[in-house]
Each structure stands twice: as structure tokens, then as C-alpha cells.
Design goal:
With 124 residues, the chain is an alpha+beta fold. The longest helix is centred in the N-terminal third of the chain and has 18 residues. β3 and β4 form a beta hairpin. It contains 2 helices and 6 strands; from the N terminus they run αββαββββ. The radius of gyration is 15 Å and the shape is globular. The N and C termini lie far apart (45 Å). It has a 6-stranded mixed β-sheet, with helices on one face.
């Protein structure tokens, strides 16, 4: 089904970061894709995304980007995940959600949101 194919594309994209092997971005993204990272950086079009990924592969190693849940409504997917990496020698780990919108079998938009990985209960 279309939904299964779209979920497979999401999984391929996440795995690309873990494997550090650039895949053909034109198979995943529309030419005018809009991508907003959880800390504010934003990329428009495959060329900007390719430059970002190429740079990140040099300075960052993704040690974990595990999908916890995928929810779906029409062409939009809500992907809940846990991310960890070493970037410029520093360790990072956080939880997040991506809102991913498709046009057929290509992603047209990704918006990421971050949450602290460590939780606490101040009013327990």
C-alpha cells in the first residue's frame, strides 16, 4: 500500500543517518522540499539538504535514531523517535517528533521538535 511505501521511505531516511551512507535524495524528497530541524536550522530544496548532510557526515556520528511510534493521518506522518550522536566530540541525546508530509512517494516537508531525554517529576 501507499502507506507502507511511505513508512519504508521514512525508515530508509533515518537509517541513512545511522549508516552514514548518502542515498539518492531525489528518491526521497520533492525538489522543493522544506526541512526544519528541531533547533531552528532550515533547508529548502534538495541541494541545501545535500550540503547539510555531507557536512554532518564529516563532523557527526549518529549512534542511535530509533523510531518509537509512527502515527499517520492522510499524507502526514507523526514520527516519535529517540536520537543520539557524537558531534564535534560532544555527546547529544534527546527525544523528538517529526511531522513528515508526503506528495505520493516523496517527502515534501519535515518539521522536527525536540524534548529532553531525561525526565523528572518535580511534584511527585
Amino acid at each position: 500500500t501507499l502507506m507502507n511505501q511511505q513508512i519504508e521511505i521514512i525508515q530508509r531516511y533515518f537509517n541513512m543517518w545511522k549508516n552514514k551512507k548518502l542515498i539518492d535524495l531525489a528518491q526521497i524528497f520533492t525538489p522543493s522540499v522544506h526541512y526544519v530541524e528541531c533547533y531552528g536550522a532550515e533547508y529548502v530544496g534538495i541541494q541545501e539538504i545535500q550540503r547539510w548532510i555531507t557536512h554532518k557526515f564529516k563532523v557527526q556520528t549518529v549512534t542511535c535514531w530509533d523510531i518509537k511510534n509512527i502515527y499517520h493521518d492522510g499524507a502526514t506522518y507523526i514520527v516519535e523517535w529517540m536520537f543520539a550522536c557524537v558531534d564535534h566530540g560532544k555527546n547529544f541525546k534527546f527525544d523528538g517528533v517529526s511531522l513528515i508530509t508526503f506528495e505520493d512517494l516523496q517527502i515534501t516537508e519535515i518539521k522536527e521538535f525536540e524534548s529532553k531525554h531525561s525526565h523528572y517529576r518535580p511534584y511527585q
